[in-house]
Amino acid sequence: MSKPPARIRLADAAFALFDERGYEQTTVDDIAERAGVGRTTFFRHYRSKEAVIFPDHDRLLELIRDRLATAGHSTALVAVSDAVRLVLLHYIEEGDLARRRYALTSKVAALRDREIASVARYQRLFREFIADWMGDPTASASLRAELMAASVVAAHNHVLRRWLRGESSDPVEEIDEAMREVLALFPAPSATTAAHDGGTTVVAFRTGQDLDALLPSLRRVIEGASGG
Amino acid sequence: MSKPPARIRLADAAFALFDERGYEQTTVDDIAERAGVGRTTFFRHYRSKEAVIFPDHDRLLELIRDRLATAGHSTALVAVSDAVRLVLLHYIEEGDLARRRYALTSKVAALRDREIASVARYQRLFREFIADWMGDPTASASLRAELMAASVVAAHNHVLRRWLRGESSDPVEEIDEAMREVLALFPAPSATTAAHDGGTTVVAFRTGQDLDALLPSLRRVIEGASGG
DNA sequence: CACTGCAACGGTACTGAGTACCGTCTAGTA
DNA sequence: TACTAGACGGTACTCAGTACCGTTGCAGTG
Which residues bind DNA (chains A, B) (predicted)? Predict the structure, then answer.
């Protein structure tokens, strides 16, 4: 019966102590002692006390980067959807561990802030990828890339949190549906550029009425947009 | 010639030292010494070494909260736009100080993370406000509130960063235009709910053609959506 | 003037995260 | 056996942040 490696024992000890005493009330010395290793060994495996909760953000970033790198111009949005699904699946595979982490980040402000900072790095990755894909350096296109990346990440967070709270039985189906909704918000980039030369603008909406009943208000919307 | 109050002297000293030696290379003792006060006094005025860079995030949060609180149901989106403009104006009034902070947050990861965490608090405020406004507790509405809040904040950040980098001469006009673009992405909430009962869906796009030329493809899109 | 209360300040001492460095033990190999 | 490399433990240090205490200065009050 050989003991599990120190890295695992440290993580187990940390989660257990955080549950028992709370995060701030647990020192690194406590964690190392329960894991049966020296304090130095803790910092050899984890850069900080916070990092023991988020072991593999770097790996996850690489995962996204790799998936996006395989995309051609016509498959860019598919790559984005795939990358988001990949991240979600990663958390789901963690199972109970992800839920314990969620319980901690919900209570401890320092951990929540760190989580948010990590998510911002994902968002940056998506934003740069989408901006490159658009290939249009104007301020307007840059804004659209920013909005799109923010929406993509928000959709992921929304589905993930639902699953973490036990409100979702099929998170993969939910993320696919959410991504469809996000992508539907944004026009194809080839069409958008033409609009700046004073074309017709059609805004997105959904209604119970049929198309013919909608035409008058459609026209009004279009004229309002081109007039303002 | 009376000296400025300690709070100001500390901020000045901190920014000066961060410029000279860098953030990590500057200790709180250094800052206090240059400001001519004791170390204790530093922590009386600023909760942490990072906080000296971001003095008034709490006040800004209150500003947003107050503006949103005055909104009625029909003026909710106006309140959101106003609140965002308020935040942007706050930074602009800081002028050079905001630009120095930007230079610091661009270099120091710890400061950038803190900035991001603060922005996330704004986003949460907007998300809760929008969700309340929608008054629809379904998962779909919750996602839409999340997407909208994320887009609102992303638009603000985009315009703010452009101004901070000196790429914008009229940031107020830019934020108004950006907010128009954001709000155009999202259908009115009364219309959205009907769509789930199998109504007509109109997707957003822009084109150089006029509306009549577009109708056939519009119909095709709608049938494709209701069929899938 | 003497007294009181209060607010801002300075100093000391402490906890705990994170870093640097050094010595030790052990497994694998020539 | 001798050598080497990696994982480990221990010590000592820096620095952020907290707790506590005493001091100073200034307002108002008798």
Answer: 27-46
